[in-house]
C-alpha cells in the first residue's frame, strides 16, 4: 500500500509543477503607428509630344491656320486661312503618361489653361476677329518656338486626353473647348490596376502676333520646342 501512495504523490506533484509554469506573469509590448501623407499622385512622362515635321512659311496678325493632334497620335487636316499655309508632313505622336494608382477612386488631370471659349474658338476660315482676339489674349499660352524672339512661333491650345489604358475617361477629357480657367479630365482606374495610361493631344495654331514688319511674321527651318505641365490629383 505504501508503494501505491508514493506513486500517487509523485503524479500529483508533476501536475502541480506544469500548472505553475502555464500561469506565469503577463507580458506587454509596444507597437508604433505610422502613416505617409501623399498629397499628389505620381505622374510619369512616358513620351513627350511630337508635332512631327511641319511645313509653315509665314504668320499673319489677322489670319491663322491650325491642325489638331489627337490624343491617339493622329494629326488632322489643316484648316484656317488660305493665306497662311500649315501642313503636317508626318512623324507626329501624342504625349503619353501614366499615373500610379492603388484603388478605383477617380482622379483628375489638370491640363494647361490655354483653351478657347466657344465664342473665340479656332474656326474654318481662320479670319474671324473674335477667334484672333482670343488667341492673342490667352494668358496661359503654350508656345512652341525657337529662341529668336523675332521669329514666328506656334501656339498649342485646347488640350485633350484619350487613348486611356487600364481605366476609363469621362466626357470632359475629349472636350477640347471648355472655356474654363483650369481644364480638368477625370479618369477612373480599372479594378486591380496599378497604373493608368493616357495620351495628350492639342491643337497647333500659327502665330497671330505678327507685327507685319518683320517681327514674328516668318518661320525658320529649325527645331521648335515648348513645354507644358499636367498635374494629377484626387
Can you characterise this structure?
With 234 residues, the protein is α+β, with helices and mostly antiparallel strands. The chain has one domain. Helices cover 13% and strands 29% of the residues. The chain has 2 helices and 13 strands. The strands form 3 sheets. Strands 1, 3, 4, 6, 8, 9 and 12 form a 7-stranded antiparallel β-sheet that branches. It has a 4-stranded antiparallel β-sheet with strand order 10-11-7-13, with no helix packed on it. The termini are far apart. About 3% of the residues have low confidence.
Number of helices: 2
What amount of the residues lies in strands? Answer: 25-35%
Distance between the termini: 85 Å
Give the ordered list of helices and strands: HEEEEEEEHEEEEEE
The amount of helix comes to 10-25%
Number of domains: 1
Topology:
Layout: H1 2-22, E1 43-47, E2 54-56, E3 65-69, E4 79-80, E5 86-88, E6 95-100, E7 107-110, H2 129-137, E8 142-144, E9 154-165, E10 167-169, E11 184-189, E12 195-206, E13 231-233
Keywords:
13 strands, alpha+beta, seven-stranded antiparallel sheet, elongated, single chain
Short description:
The protein is α+β, with helices and mostly antiparallel strands and 234 residues long.
Amino acid at each position: 500500500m505504501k508503494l501505491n501512495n508514493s506513486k500517487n504523490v509523485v503524479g500529483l506533484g508533476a501536475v502541480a509543477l506544469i500548472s505553475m509554469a502555464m500561469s506565469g506573469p503577463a507580458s506587454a509590448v509596444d507597437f508604433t503607428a505610422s502613416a505617409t501623407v501623399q498629397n499628389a499622385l505620381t505622374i510619369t512622362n512616358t513620351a513627350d509630344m511630337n508635332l512631327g515635321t511641319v511645313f509653315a512659311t509665314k504668320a499673319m496678325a489677322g489670319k491663322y491656320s491650325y491642325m489638331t493632334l489627337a490624343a491617339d497620335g493622329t494629326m488632322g487636316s489643316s484648316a484656317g486661312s488660305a493665306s497662311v499655309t500649315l501642313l503636317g508632313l508626318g512623324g507626329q505622336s501624342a504625349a503619353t503618361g501614366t499615373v500610379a494608382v492603388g484603388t478605383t477612386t477617380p482622379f483628375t488631370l489638370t491640363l494647361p489653361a490655354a483653351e478657347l471659349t466657344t465664342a473665340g474658338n479656332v474656326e474654318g476660315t481662320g479670319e474671324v476677329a473674335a477667334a484672333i482676339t482670343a488667341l492673342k489674349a490667352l494668358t496661359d499660352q503654350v508656345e512652341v518656338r525657337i529662341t529668336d524672339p523675332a521669329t514666328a512661333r506656334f501656339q498649342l491650345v485646347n488640350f485633350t486626353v484619350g487613348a486611356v489604358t487600364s481605366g476609363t475617361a469621362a466626357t470632359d477629357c475629349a472636350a477640347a473647348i471648355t472655356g474654363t480657367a483650369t481644364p480638368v479630365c477625370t479618369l477612373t482606374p480599372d479594378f486591380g490596376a496599378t497604373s493608368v495610361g493616357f495620351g495628350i493631344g492639342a491643337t497647333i495654331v500659327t502665330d497671330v502676333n505678327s507685327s507685319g514688319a518683320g517681327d514674328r511674321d516668318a518661320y525658320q527651318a529649325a527645331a521648335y520646342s515648348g513645354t507644358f505641365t499636367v498635374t494629377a490629383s484626387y
